Amino acid sequence: MTAQGERLPPPTVSLGPSTWLRENLFNSWYNAVLTVVLALILGWLAIRVGEWATTTARWGVVTANLRLFLIGLYPADQAGRVWLSLTALSALAGLSAAVWRGAAVRTLAFWLAAAQALLAGLAAVSELGLAVTFALLLNVAIAWTAFAVGLRLPVPRPALAIAWLAFVPVALVLLAGVGGPLPVVATNLWGGLLLTFLLAIVGIVLSFPFGVLLALGRRSDLPAIRLLSTAYIEIIRGVPLVTILFMAAVMLPLFLPGEIRVEHVVRAMAGITLFSAAYVAENVRGGLQAIPSGQVEAAHALGLNALQTNLYIVLPQALRSVIPANVGLFISLLKDTTLVTIGAGLLEILGIGRAVLAQSEWFGAQLEVYAFIAAVFFVMCYTMSQASYRLETALGVGQR
Amino acid sequence: MDDETIGADAIIVCRDVHKWFGKLHVLRGIDLTVRAGEVVVIFGASGSGKSTFIRTINRLEDHQRGQIFVDGIELTDDIRNVAAVRSEIGMVFQQFNLFPHLTALQNVTLGPIRVRKVPRQRAEQAAMELLERVGIPEQAHKYPAQLSGGQQQRVAIARALAMQPKIMLFDEPTSALDPEMISEVLDVMRELAGSGMTMLCVTHEMGFARAVANRMVFIDEGRIVEVGPPQQIFEAPQHERTRRFLSQILH
After folding, report:
1. Would you give the distance in Å from CA B130 to the centre of its chain?
2. Cβ B111–A304 below 8 Å, yes or no?
3. Is B91 in Cβ contact with A298 (below 8 Å)?
4. Residue in B80, B85, B114, B117 to test binding to A, most A beta-carbons within 10 Å
5. Reduced to 3 states, what is the DSSP secondary structure of residue B25?
């Protein structure tokens, strides 16, 4: 019996591994049997996969074609330009991770550096050789240096934002070239992981604001805007992405005057962006509907007009609550970039994989190629979902 | 009846206000005049239209017939009139309606910074003074989810006061609170009334009404049944419905 007002410490529970095993896996006879059986099955699978991966697998298909997988048909002698844009990206990412201090930004920057380190290791055992290894490791070093610099020096935030905005056209010019000292590289030569990355980034960054505008338009009081937004969303959602890519590749030149040539890559980016925006719009609309009407009433009672109410009260709450849904959408978008192989005739990483397999010397090496591509996608998608999880925690999604 | 004569210091004038929700006739000819500095308590059964009525004063609900004047400005569909009226009225809701993604301080400073373009430093200073006035300056950097109901409602009152309104509307401010937190909110409202603010309160707190109200208005089925000072309403109600309602709530 405790005395009046006396507080006791909680009972101590031993949390050693043997206790955990006993309580979770072996707590009754049938659980124990299940545990043993599953352990045997998983162990056998692991051994078989491990055996295959280390002995009979022909990883040469990956290492011998690594440049194709990474940058597609981009000319090998110009590949240094790709590396240069990666360097700039790494530096900006490292700096942003220090200055913006968000958990999501740090996760993304960290994985950019880690992925380059992994690729550096892979390059060392491949046809690319140690030069590429050192180049990639140099990028990692630059990223960490930028991070350290950002922590110590006061970097003005507007300057960083302008640097990012300037990076986009600079990187595009660097990759595409303008002739003279920087030879033009036609965009249909861009391929592999470079193309996947580019299509995904552009698709995500452009479809998000467009989708938010569509969602607001669908809930607008003005009938014309509401009709246009609804029609756009329903038509796009009714059609597979492949057909949109086909139409973008074939029909876009028909609509534009003959002098304007739209690059294939731009058509693919347009198709992906237009497609994704409709889905983002529906996610955001769900978030907007979940905002209690009292929030808007309180905002109006304070004197905030419609724009201010949306900007400061409604959208911050709505967008915050649909982060899980939207990031899921973006992860799907990343994987849907594989469709440009069919729809737009470009060779992103999966298309390169199939082209590599068509070579006679690598005939039959499907498992190795697809395992590698799956691993690449897994690293990228897992990074995104981790960044999303940290962002949710930082913003208090589901807690306030 | 004094709500027929429009005095020079009448700050709210409602003439024959009707409102329909679709086919439902919710307000059936409300006539009311409120003078500056007056505290008016509106009470009635649920569904009687009392909340709808005070929401028409700051155009959270529109009215289909009749006229409403706030400080001389008529409430019409013209958004400039509506904006002008809303800048003079502060409202406190039953469900608090605090912005959950902002701290208490940010909730209070949002209006002044964005609507009145007050510089951030001055807005935060004024906000801290208001939070002190309602008794919770130490909660300034907490989010609404971390505050108790009584604290949230007091932040809501501070938020409304930050816009320096001439009129404060209260829509059942204590109905969603646990009993022990009701008195802390009523104390703030009492102090506000004592400082000369014009207040229109929809509430069931009869003790508060008796102590603080200048006039009480009984609304039933969309009509004003009886108006008078608390003394008259409690001790000598003139209508049967008023007597019946009071006997139901004063048990």
Report:
1. 18
2. yes
3. yes
4. B114
5. strand
Q: Is the dihedral of CA B43, B49, B51, B52 positive or negative?
A: negative
Residues of B in contact with A400 (CB under 8 A): 100-101, 143-146
Q: Which two tokens stand for residue A293?
A: 């009407």
- Taking CB atoms and an 8 Å limit, are B86 and A312 in contact across chains? no
State mean pLDDT over A263-268.
84
Q: What are phi and psi of B60, to 5 degrees?
A: -70, -25
- Nearest Cα neighbor of A193 from A384, A346, A359, A357 is A346
Question: Region A181-199: what's the mean pLDDT?
Answer: 85
The owner of tokens 């068509």 is A358
As a residue count, chain A comes to: 400
The single-letter code of the amino acid at A234 is E
The pLDDT of residue B2? 44
Chain position carrying tokens 């600079």: A170
User: Using the beta-carbon criterion (under 8 Å), do A308 and B101 form an inter-chain contact?
Assistant: no
How buried is residue A20: exposed, middle or buried, by Cβ count under 10 Å (0-12/13-18/19+)? exposed
Rounded percentage of chain A residues whose pLDDT exceeds 70? 98
Closest CA–CA distance from residue B138 to any residue of chain A (Å): 19
Alpha-carbon distance of B223 to B28, in angstroms, equals 6
H or E element at residue B219? strand B215-220
- Whole-structure pTM value: 0.83
Average of per-residue pLDDT values in chain B: 91
Tokens representing residue B107 in the block: 């909730």
Q: How much of chain A is in helix, strand and coil states, percent to nearest 5?
A: 80, 0, 20
C-beta atoms surrounding A234 within 10 Å: 12
DSSP run (H or E) holding B24: strand B24-35
- pLDDT tops 60 at residue A144: yes
Q: How far is CA B4 from the centre of its chain?
A: 22
CA closest to B94 among chain A residues: A294
For residue B81, list chain A residues with Cβ-Cβ distance below 8 A. Answer: none
Residue carrying the six token digits 């109200």:
B213
CA-based R_g, chain A, Å: 26
Question: In sequence order, what are the residues at sequence separation of 6 or more whose Cβ sits closer than 8 angstroms to the Cβ of residue A15?
Answer: none
A292–B145 C-beta distance less than 8 A:
no
- B110·A312 Cβ contact <8 A: yes
B109, B124 in Cβ contact below 8 A?
A: yes
Is the Cα dihedral B224, B225, B227, B229 positive or negative?
negative
Selecting from A294, A301, A317 the residue whose C-beta is nearest the C-beta of B86 gives A301
Please indicate whether, in this complex, the C-beta atoms of B98 and A302 are within 8 angstroms of each other.
no
Question: Given pLDDT bands bounded at 50, 70 and 90, which one contains residue B4?
Answer: very low
Q: Looking at residue B3, what is its pLDDT?
A: 43
Q: Contact, A233 vs A334, CB < 8 A?
A: no
